[in-house]
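Hi Y.,

Following your request, here is the sequence exactly as I used it, all 313 residues.
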Amino acid sequence: MIVHCGEALIDFIPGGTCDGDAAFVPVPGGSPYNSAIASARLGVPAAFLGTVSTDFFGDQLFDTLEANGVDGSYVNRADLPTTLAFVKKNERGEARYAFFANGAADRSLLPAEVPELSDTVRAIHVGSISLLGEPAGDTIERLAVAEGKRRVVSFDPNVRPGLIANEGSYRERFMSIAAATTIIKISDEDLQWFDPHRDLEVAARGLLTDTTRLVVVTRGSDGVTAYGPFGSVMVDAVNTNVADTIGAGDSFHAALLSWLHLRDLLSFTGVNRLSAANAEKMLRFAATVAAVTCSRAGADPPRMDELPDNVRL
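Below is the corresponding structure, written out as tokens. Let me know if you'd prefer a different format.
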């Protein structure tokens, strides 16, 4: 099982007009939340760990997890509001967000509310805006550091610079989690934000340690590169008609972990012995999943039978 830990929120995406003004449609979202659904749709046992509101948006979030086969036994419910994120797309389908999260449920997760994880859990995925609010940010950092000694932790910072109140503290949290992880999936923009004085390859290789064995840098339409014990492997982006990019990185990350899980490589040993040939297959699979997600409005990742035959497992 893969446990995806962090925020669960409602994305309000453009959806027509109302009395001549732009209208928004509420859909479940949040980076780790999207990844949990993407993993489950690919046939991998997945769970979501985080706090979900008891309001009607929270019910929508929890019901959507269940409808997609995501294990909700690690979900904590709280009588606090749901985080709301309004999404605006540019002409290329790229998304900008406005978040409303003060006092929200998904920021309230306490260490005491994190249950003991089953031995069936092979990996934990952490990251995104769940690291910005307290106490959830501290709780997730502690979880990643502790669990990084027992099983694979995969980290996608998914930086939102406009939401960072204290850049120094955020960078410290990034380095703390990165040091405990086996896999880091990071966009080129996020990597440049963290390490602006070095080129991408040098910065990416700088994240590799005796603990961090795989660093995957996504570059949008310019493709993706993985760095690891095998050296480096790059694959091109998969061509698609882009509806929007909402959830593309989340589905990519989920597909990456799912590919490793289905190949019995989602372990310290498995990641460490990943070959260049297998790394290329993994990246092509994840890039294809992300491309299908981009071809559909909102975070709507594909199921395995919706993928081309040449990349299916």
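The CA atoms of residues 59 and 207 lie 39 Å apart.

Thanks again,
Q.
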